[in-house]
Specification:
single chain; 2 domains; eight-stranded mixed sheet; 8 helices; binds fe (ii) ion
């Protein structure tokens, strides 16, 4: 029989764990409680084996780190956090970011934050698998009163406890500099963000200053440490990640606003998108971009013609050439399913384009005229909605629900594998 002492056990656990070993976490349960705010999981490029954890505190931490262990295990991996503190809207946000690596696919983990002798509780962390998954998609949540966002999110999460991550398609807040709006938005999904990762999309409202001028989206960029796109000077502006059988691409449609800070977003992004898709071998390709691909007529403004927006003109050919199955947009605060399009017209071999609706209290009642390519339109005037996305190797299903959980649309795509 091999005798194992504590020193040998620690070394063995460190090798198995892949992080660096911090000792058995259960020994420290009597330690002082650490209070953190806005604790959140952010999607990572490889969701089956990694995760980004971020949080903020009222005052600086000395040795911030994250402990991760398989559920019901005592083998703990420790990951140091970096100080990602930033200043915006007149406030210094003490914030920390840890990149969790070397996880096993399809596994249930637990994690907690610690600093010296003080710890938070443990929270769930589940890695993705090759099996069917479900994600929640929320359109613009920008609001005057974030209770409305809170209600639609509450219904969506209660009815979909099996959702493995969630996306907001941009205009997360109404004013991107307003620290109180960010706090209100985070507060409404604070329990969910601890448990499942969030994939953000930047909208134009993330680029607005307190006095409603254009500014660099400092808060958005700092709050969400999304996967590195490898493009100098465009860090966190656009990115991609894999989840199950799907490859997701998140794009930035704010070239008008942000040209003054970094020019050539359209061409830079197109080049990156082509390279990114060359490396991709997933069955399903799904893109998100805040501004819509179509241009709508506006009721009462007959001079504005129906057609395609500059997002559509620039990126629909890319999406279709690169074999994207579905593209989700937002910005217009109305749900419209346009079916599958190719070469700017209906085509059953084309890409599915969904304009996702709204999930806040900013409503554009009776503003948009219908577009000839609209197939399904949410009941008018618009009220809040959310979507589910379910994907496995053969099937992709999108469902749209109103804020009370009633379903108004369903689209199913299939592939022969
Ligand atoms: Fe917008």
């Amino acid at each position: 029989m091999i005798k194992i002492n504590r020193r040998t056990f620690i070394k063995a656990a460190a090798v198995i764990g892949g992080g660096f070993f911090a000792g058995c976490g259960f020994e420290k349960n009597s330690a002082e409680k650490l209070n953190v705010e806005n604790l959140r999981q952010i999607i990572s490029a490889g969701s089956s084996n990694s995760r980004c954890i971020m949080w903020r505190t009222d005052s600086p931490l000395k040795n911030p780190a994250v402990e991760v262990k398989l559920k019901n295990s005592s083998n703990v991996m420790k990951f140091s956090a970096i100080d990602s503190t930033f200043t915006d809207d007149g406030e210094e946000i003490f914030q920390y970011t840890a990149n969790i690596k070397n996880l096993s696919p399809d596994s249930n983990y637990e994690y907690r934050i610690f600093d010296g002798e003080s710890f938070t509780d443990f929270f769930e962390l589940k890695t993705s698998s090759d099996k069917k998954f479900k994600a929640l998609i929320f359109p613009d949540s920008q609001s005057a009163d974030y209770d409305v966002w809170g209600e639609v999110a509450k219904t969506a999460f209660e009815k979909n406890p099996d959702a493995e991550f969630f996306i907001n398609v941009g205009d997360i807040v109404d004013n991107g500099e307003d620290k109180n709006q960010w706090r209100a938005w985070f507060e409404k999904v604070s329990e969910q963000m601890k448990k499942i990762p969030f994939a953000p999309v930047m909208g134009n409202h993330e680029t607005y200053s307190r006095d409603w001028q254009i500014r660099f989206p400092t808060a958005y960029i700092n709050y969400f440490a999304v996967p590195d796109n490898g493009v100098e000077n465009f860090s966190r502006r656009f990115y991609s990640f894999d989840f199950g059988a799907a490859h997701f691409v998140i794009l930035d449609s704010q070239w008008d606003e942000l040209e003054q800070f970094q020019p050539n977003l359209i061409e830079t992004q197109k080049n990156w998108l082509r390279e990114d898709m060359q490396k991709n071998s997933k069955t399903w390709n799904i893109a998100f971009i805040h501004r819509d691909v179509l241009q709508y007529r506006i009721n009462g403004r007959p001079e504005r013609q129906e057609g395609f927006s500059d997002v559509g003109v620039n990126f629909m050919p890319e999406f279709e050439n690169l074999n994207f199955d579905a593209v989700f947009t937002a910005h217009l605060h109305t749900y419209r399913n346009r079916g599958r399009l190719k070469n700017f017209r209906e085509d059953e071999t084309g890409t599915l384009y969904i304009l996702t609706g709204l999930a806040g209290d900013v409503r554009y009642s009776n503003l948009w005229a219908d577009h000839a390519l609209d197939k399904v339109i949410a009941p008018q005037p618009e009220i809040d909605n959310y979507l589910t996305l379910e994907v496995d190797e053969k099937n992709l299903s999108v469902k749209c629900f109103l804020h009370d959980g009633s379903q108004i649309d369903e689209i199913n795509l299939t592939k022969e594998v």
